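#lab-general

N.A. 3:47 PM
ok so I finally got the sequence cleaned up, no stray characters, all 358 residues accounted for. can someone with queue access submit it? mine expired

B.Y. 3:52 PM
send it over

N.A. 3:53 PM
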Amino acid sequence: MASVSPTLEGFRAAVRRPSLALGEITWRWVVGATTAALFFFGLFEYLSTLPVTNGELLFLRTRQPYLVAQAILHILRGTLNRAVMSAILAALCLALLWMIAASLGRIATVRVMSEYVHEQVTARFSAGIEPAKSGKEGKAAPGSPFRTLLRLNFLRVTVAVAAIVGFIGAATLAVSASPAADPQPGLAFLLFMPLAALVWLAWSLLNWLLSLATMFAVRDGEDVVGAISAAVGLCRDRPAPVFAVSTWTGVAHLVAFVGATTVVSMAFGFAQVLPWRLVVLAVILVTLVYFAVADWLYTARLAGYVCIAEIPEALLRPQRPPLATPSPGPPVFAALLQTTIDRDEPILSDVPNLIPET
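B.Y. 4:20 PM
back already:
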């Protein structure tokens, strides 16, 4: 019986079922395109409403950093508060859109992944093995997990906002350690980096756990607490497969990021030779390809997690090769071995008083 590699099965599912990656890319890119369109539309509308006097225009044409900064500050005076309030309102609307799109997309992808694992993986490897127990056994048929997914995604948004506040707090603390009267940029940097690293680590772990919990909300119909508990239980019961899937997909994502960054750097290197429109188009195309690859890798990782949760425990254990039994040797050696001992010798008997007394 061969063991199952959840990492390999996750990549195989992403390749054999391209609709999974296409669905993941669709809802992510819809939210991204909406965000980009809203950002540029709001930026242009805001800039068109700013009054620019002749004196401010004169300062801008001097190209002196101090005069340009003073002109920009004077232009934005009195209107920056409205821009911040508009940005906060737009961020709330985009967060709501992301919560709805992510919930619908997760319902579609996880159900298809579960069907794929049952049809392709479990049937191929687990002949005669009891299937993995699902958390929905002994419960009523689960309803729509949409509300649970909305709550989990709301928690993810809350964690992201808390991380932003944490970064701002770390920056404020670092700035307070380096006052203008006695500037110490080295101390501020050494104080900011560990705090920012701790905030990022806490955010990434909580966001990953909540993202994993959405799988159990769809698969088992769990509520918010039950889904989070099931995600923690999966990490506790099967840590090695979960770590392997996360590590290999993370390494692949890092390779894709380094490759895309290298290509973009090369494109900027040719900016003085090629037309700037061609450079911008190349950068946009490379960025879109990177986003598509990143979404495909996320689909493979999620499929690996579904495989870990669905397949039996026996298939995840590495199979040891059978121990070789020693051969009895040639027949002549066996015959010599049998004739070297006299089984009629009384000293070998377990019956007492067979040796005559003298």
